[in-house]
Amino acid sequence: PRPRLYPCHKTQDSLLSSASGYNKYRGILNWCVVMLVLSNARLFLENLLKHGILVDPIQVVSLFLNDPYRWPAACLVIVANVFVLVALYTERQLSKGSFSERLGFLVHAINMGVLITFPAAVVLLLPSVTPVGGASALSIYTILFLKLYSYKDVNLWCRELSSIKVKKLSRSLSCPSQQHWSGGDCKVSYPGNLTIRDMYYFVFAPTLCYELNFPRSPSVRVGFLLRRLCEMLFFTQVLVALAQQWMVPIIRSSMKPLEVPNHLLWLMFFYWFFHSSMNFTAELLRFGDRQFYNDWWNSETVTYFWQNWNIPVHKWCLRHFYKPLLRRGFSKKVSQSAVFFLSAFFHEYLVSVPLRMFRLWAFMGMMAQIPLAWFVGRFLRGNYGNAAVWISIIIGQPFAVLMYVHDYYVLHHRQEVDGL
Amino acid sequence: PRPRLYPCHKTQDSLLSSASGYNKYRGILNWCVVMLVLSNARLFLENLLKHGILVDPIQVVSLFLNDPYRWPAACLVIVANVFVLVALYTERQLSKGSFSERLGFLVHAINMGVLITFPAAVVLLLPSVTPVGGASALSIYTILFLKLYSYKDVNLWCRELSSIKVKKLSRSLSCPSQQHWSGGDCKVSYPGNLTIRDMYYFVFAPTLCYELNFPRSPSVRVGFLLRRLCEMLFFTQVLVALAQQWMVPIIRSSMKPLEVPNHLLWLMFFYWFFHSSMNFTAELLRFGDRQFYNDWWNSETVTYFWQNWNIPVHKWCLRHFYKPLLRRGFSKKVSQSAVFFLSAFFHEYLVSVPLRMFRLWAFMGMMAQIPLAWFVGRFLRGNYGNAAVWISIIIGQPFAVLMYVHDYYVLHHRQEVDGL
User: Fold this and answer.
1) Both A64 and A209 in a single domain?
2) I want to staple B363 with a disulfide (CB 3.0 to 4.6 A). Which of A138, A350, B281, B348 is the partner?
3) Integer Cα distance of A362 and A132 in angstroms
4) Are both A64 and A198 inside the same structural domain?
5) Domain of A135?
6) What membrane topology term does the record carry (chains A, B) (predicted)?
7) pLDDT, tens digit (0-9, with 9 covering 90-100), for B321-368
8) ipTM, interface predicted TM-score of the complex
9) What is the count of structural domains for chain A?
10) What residues of B are annotated to the active site?
C-alpha cells in the first residue's frame, strides 16, 4: 500500500456542549423508561409477594359512586346526548331556512348555557355525586361544550360561504387541498354533513375542532391498536396503584408540598391520556390527525409550554376564540389575556364544583402563568429557560393540587369532628 | 372579512410514536438534571445540617497513599517521563539516520515493553501502593503506551512518505486539507516536529493519536474554561461523597448486585471525565478536536455503543491496530476479534494488577460483549435495541465491578481473620 499519514482529527465541539446545537436524545427517554421499570420491578415483586394484590377495584368504583345502585355521574353523561341532538336539530332547521340565523343563535346559546350550568348544579346539589365522579362528568360536559361551539361555528361559516354567489368556489374551499383522502372516502359538502352519524363521529373523535371532512387514515392497524390498549391498561393500573398505595397515605400523614410523586403521576397521566388513549380512539375511528401534543418537553418559555402540551385545546382556542377576537378588532394582548381568562375559568370550574369548594387556587394558578411567562422570557434562555419551565411544572403544579387537597381534608376533617 | 372554513387538521403521527421518526429530546436530558438536583438538594441540606461535612479529604488522600511520606504512585508517574524522552531520542536518531529502521524498532519495542511491565511489577511488589493509587498510575502508563505507539507509527509513516521521490507531494500530504488552521500557527513538517515541546503537547493533549499538526482552536475562552472547571470540582465532590457516604456502607453491609447507584456513578464519571475534564484540558491547550464521545446514548446495537462512548480509544484502535491488521491481509472478523482481545487485556491489566487478584472477570466481561452484540443485533431493533443496550450497561457493568469488590473484600477479610 502507498504510504499515507491517516489524519484523524478535525475541529469540532463536543455533543453535550450547548455550542454544538445537538439535540437528539431519544436514548435518554428510553433510559428514563428502563430506569422507571427496573427500579419499580423489584419493589413491585417484593410488594406483591408480601402483601398480595392490594389494589382494590371495588374501592376504585367507590371513587365514582357512593351508592352502587345510583349512578348520578353516569346518568349525567347519558343526559348529555340531549344537548348533542338539540344542536344537530337546530343546525338542520338553519340549513333548511326554517330557523332564522337569529333564532338559531338563540337556541344554540340557550342549549350551551344549560349544557354548562345544568351538570354543575346537579353536582353541587346531589350529595351522592363523589368528587371523582363529578369531575369526570364535568370534564365530559366541558369537552362537549367546546365541541358543540365549534360545530355551530363551522356550520355558520359553511352557510356564509354558500350565500356567496360563486358557488363553485365555495365547494372547492369546503374541501381544502392540504387534506389527504384515502381511496374509499368521498368528500361531504355543506348540508350533507348534518347527519346523526357525522355528528357522533365528531363527538367521539379526539379533537375539539369540527371539520366537514376530517383527514382519515387508510385502515385500522390492529398491532398499533393493541399496543396502545396495553399501554392504557398498564398505566391505568400503575396510576390507580400509585394513588392508592402511595399518594393517599403520604397526604394523610404529612403535607409535603415538594413531593416528586405528584409530578410523576402527571407525566404518566399525560402519556396515558394524550398518547395511548387518544391514539387508541383515533386508530379505532381512523382519525388521521394524531398531533395531540407537540414537543413541550423542549419548551424554553412558559408560553411555548402552554401552546404545545395540549394541542386539541390549543387548536380550539386559536380557531374559535383568539382569532375571532382578532377579527372583531381586539388587540393581540387583550385577546391573549382573554384566552388565559377562559382557560382559568374552566380550570376553576373543573376543580371547584366537584370538590364543592370555591378557593380560586386553580384560577390564580393559571393567571400566575402570565407574570411567570414574562419573567422566564425576559431573563432565561436556551437550556436555562427549559430548566425553569421544568421546575415550574415540577414544583408549581403539585403545589396547586396540594392546596385543594389540603383544604378538602381540613374541611372534611372538621365536618367529621363537628359530627361527633 | 371574507368567509372561510379555517381547516385545522392534517394527517400526521404523534411525536412519541416510533413511526414519526422524531428524536429531539434535549428537554428530557434537562429534566433528568433538574430531577437529580431537586431530589438531592433537600437530602443534601438535611444531611449537612445534621452531620456537618462528612466528606473527609484526608481519607481521600489515604486512598492513594498508605504512608504520607512515601508516594510510590506519584513517583511512578514521574518516572514515566523517562520513557517519553527515550521515544523522542529514538525518533531523532531515526530521522538523522543514526539508527537503522531495525534498531529503532528494537529500541521502541524494548521501551514500550518495559513501559507496560515495569509499573505492573512495582504495583505488584510494593505493598505501599494502594489499589486506587495503583490503578491511577497504571491508567497513566497505559495511556502513555498508546500515545507512544501512535507517535512511533506516525513518524514512521512520515519517513516512508519522505523516501518517495515526489517530495512536493509528500509535503502537501503532511498537512491534510480538511484541517482548519488559525492565523498565527504555522504548519510543521516531518523532522521539525521532533521537539520536546511538540512531544509534551501530545502527551498532555486529550487524544491518543499523534498528528504533526493538530487542529487548534483560535483562543482560550475563559468562560468556557471556568464552567468546565466548576463542573469538574462539583462532580469530583459528588463522586467522592457518594462513594464515601453511600457506596462503601452498602457494599460492606449487603451485596446487592442490581444496585442502581453504581450505574449513576458511572454516568457521572463519564460526564466528569469525557466532557468536563477533557474539554477543560483541550481548552487550555487550544486543542480543536473536541469529539471525545459520540451519541452512544442512542445506540441500538452493542457494537455502536463500544464504537462511540470512548472516541480517543476507538480512534486509536481503528488507526493503529484494526486498519494495519486489515492492510496486512487479515480478515475483518479476525481483526475485530483482535481489537476485543486487546481491549479485554487492558481492562484486565487495569483491574487485576492494582487489586493484586487475577480473576479474569473484566476479561470475560469484555469477551461476553461479542455474543451479546450478536444477540441484540439479531433479535432487537430500534428503541427495543436501545433499551437492551441500556439494560446491559445498567446491570452488566455493576455486576462485573461487584465481582471484584466481593472477591477483594472476601480476600482481605480472610487475611484479617488469618492475622488474628
Assistant:
1) yes
2) B348
3) 17
4) yes
5) 56-167+190-214
6) Multi-pass membrane protein
7) 999 999 999 999 899 889 988 988 998 899 888 888 888 888 888 888
8) 0.76
9) 2
10) 347
